[in-house]
UniProtKB/TrEMBL annotation:
The keyword NAD applies. PROSITE patterns: GAPDH (PS00071). One of its GO terms (cellular component) is cytoplasm. Keywords: Cytoplasm, Glycolysis, NAD, NADP, Oxidoreductase. The lineage of its organism: Archaea, Methanobacteriati, Methanobacteriota, Stenosarchaea group, Halobacteria. This is Glyceraldehyde-3-phosphate dehydrogenase.
Length: 357
């Protein structure tokens, strides 16, 4: 059993904790929180041992009637791996804490690539985290994860000469009351190219990719308008067959009648996905087009959840506990990743297993 601690229990942290709990080869040691808010209460109700992320604030938990299992040092000491899900920039400051106990740590996409030994995407470069010398790994951002999952098979099968992506980005997560824009459309960043392309290059150093970003008043998902110039000229059916083979890519079929991110999220909620999460890239099948050797498509990325299977795989990779295929299959099976199956005739479970079963 791999002992896993989660430091930072917000949007990403609470999902990572649930995903770890669904893996029979992992044990969730506990989660660390800064304050006894509603998320702390929810963690307690789920039976997750709670640790004070800031020891000086331990009393606030006691005053709120919440029992603590310990403080952050106790959690780090007991864990084989800590998944750091703190806000951007805090993870980097926590490296000293993890070094003190010689504990491996995973960081999220908000941290700088320079703060870690390796940047990780399960489909594209799983083995980079398996090296004995690697202590700190960054699971790349939601957008970079979505792009890496798509670029890996395209590059392997047809060769990518140049990728050009427009990222239409959600303004904030549904719980982020302070984010915007509320009624505007912002070039963001206004400079071209955006930072997303260089971030994809932390996974594929040689990929020729340019990205531009726009921010819109939405909270549900991002939308990528993708144009990839390929070295070959496949038919649309050949591209479709290739993408169809990838469990973490969901080709949204015409018959589903899903016209946008709102209906995608509705579908996820209707099918019982926890928090309405969509761990898969959602690629509109009808958008697949090939003009000469240019491929075009639209894909939506659920920013709150597509990195969750990747974090689970990164735990196994950094512990060298499984190879790429074994880990990805286990993760997908235990979480229920693979919406393709819903429309493919064989209706598999698409929600997490109960690890206690
Ligand atoms: P969040 O604000 O929802 O959650 C962060 C949590 O960490 C909060 O509960 C906060 O109280 C807590 N925290 C703050 N300081 C802390 C400390 N010193 N120690 C422990 N906990 C602390 O943030 P998030 O959206 O979950 O983002 C976390 C990381 O994941 C960031 O690097 C972000 O860039 C990345 N990420 C976010 C998304 C997304 O869409 N939300 C997607 C992919 C990656």
């Amino acid at each position: 059993m791999i002992k896993v601690g989660v430091n930072g229990y917000g949007t990403i942290g609470k999902r990572v904790a649930d995903a770890v709990r669904a893996q029979p080869d992992m044990k969730l040691v506990g989660v660390a929180k800064t304050r006894p808010n509603y998320e702390a209460e929810a963690a307690v109700r789920k039976g997750y041992p709670l640790y004070a992320a800031i020891p000086e604030k331990s009393d606030a938990f006691r005053n709120a009637g919440i029992d603590l299992a310990g403080e952050i040092d106790d959690l780090v000491m007991q864990s084989d791996v800590v998944v750091d899900c703190t806000p951007s920039g805090i993870g980097e400051q926590n490296r000293e804490l993890y070094r003190r106990y010689d504990t491996r740590a995973l960081f999220q996409g908000g941290e700088s690539a320079d703060a870690v030994d390796a940047s990780f995407n399960a489909r594209a470069n799983y083995d980079v985290a398996r090296d004995d010398d690697v202590q700190f790994v960054r699971v790349v951002s939601c957008n970079t994860t979505g792009l890496s999952r798509l670029m890996a098979p395209l590059d392997e099968a047809f060769g990518v000469e140049k990728a050009r992506i427009t990222l239409i980005r959600r303004g904030g997560d549904p719980a982020d009351a302070s984010r915007g824009p509320i009624n505007d459309i912002l070039p963001d960043p206004v400079t071209v190219p955006s930072h997303h392309g260089p971030d994809v290059n932390t996974i594929f150093p040689d990929l020729n990719i340019d990205t531009v970003g726009v921010k819109v008043p939405a909270t549900l998902m991002h939308l990528h308008s993708v144009n990839v110039t390929l070295s070959e000229t496949p038919t649309v059916d050949e591209v479709r067959d290739l993408l169809h083979e990838e469990p973490r890519l969901f080709l949204v079929p015409d018959i589903a009648g899903i016209g946008g991110t709102g209906q995608l999220k509705e579908f996820a909620m209707d099918t019982g996905r926890p928090r309405g999460d969509l761990w898969e890239n959602c690629i509109w099948d009808e958008s697949l087009s090939v003009e000469d050797n240019d491929l075009y498509l639209f894909q939506s990325i659920h920013q709150e959840s597509d990195v969750i299977p990747e974090n689970v795989d990164a735990i196994r990779a950094i512990m060298d506990a499984a190879d790429q295929q074994e880990s990805m299959e286990k993760t997908d099976e235990n979480l229920g990743v693979g919406l393709e199956s819903v429309f493919g005739g064989v209706r598999k479970r698409i929600t997490p297993r109960n690890a206690d079963d």
